[in-house]
Amino acid sequence: MSMVDDGTERGNEAVDEPGWEVDPDDESGAAVVAAVGRQIKTWREAAGLRAGELGSMLGYGEDLIYKVEGGSRIPRPEFMDAVDVAVGAGGKLAAMKPDIAEVRYPKKIRELAKLEAAAVELSAYGNHNIHGLLQTEEYARALFGMRRPAFSHDDVERLVAARVARQSIFSRSPAPELSFVQEEVTLRRHLGGRMVWRRQLEHLLEVSELRHVEIQVMPTSRDEHAGMGGEMQVLKFKDGSAVGRSEGDFGSRPVSDPKHLRIIELRCGIIRAQALNPRESRAFIEQVLGET
Which stretches does the entry tag as region Disordered (predicted)? Predict the structure, then answer.
């Protein structure tokens, strides 16, 4: 038994699968995956290889090669690199990795990631768990792992990968202004166990040091709280437009109508005013970490 780069185990029977299942409701994503699969098949046949032979070369079963070629399986980047070498594509198949990089994530997450990638300002309030952009990989894995009905292991890893990929927003240039307000309970709930929780708190302190990031804590002891309706978020863009979402309002869907946005922005502003300021919040997080 050996471990491959993507963390899956390969046995002698080569039964592990090099990617993720295609979402049948994601028509545009399915079309991209199908096109990539056809290219792989074309290069394999041109190289004079049967599907089983290619599978043996890569350490996968024949059926899995057919799944990728048939567009029912989204190949991982390392699979594309390996098949490119095996069929002598000279980098042409490996060059298709950006085409499948986005579609390997659920459609809703892709749409959110695109909005975040274009935003020049983000304001968010979280009351159940740490905001996705602030989560460590281990925390995110624990969070998805406790969902009910339970996600499959494959789905958990796919969702974790998508969440981690979104965090490239912190290294963008020019940097967007990012503001987060976290409910105190999200800092005290030991999701994933004590070590995962401690690392998450340490990560919040690390991120709070970035000049374009503000993290605030809403203490449970507050007598006034404008966020009792649930989590919310506002994204603003370079052209002056914006998109907001507030749990329980407007169907919990993203809205861009100025009248709806005004309500969400008003609440976000009041929440920031009611929460501890960034310096006080950092001290609060350090205190919670020190209590462990």
Answer: 1-27
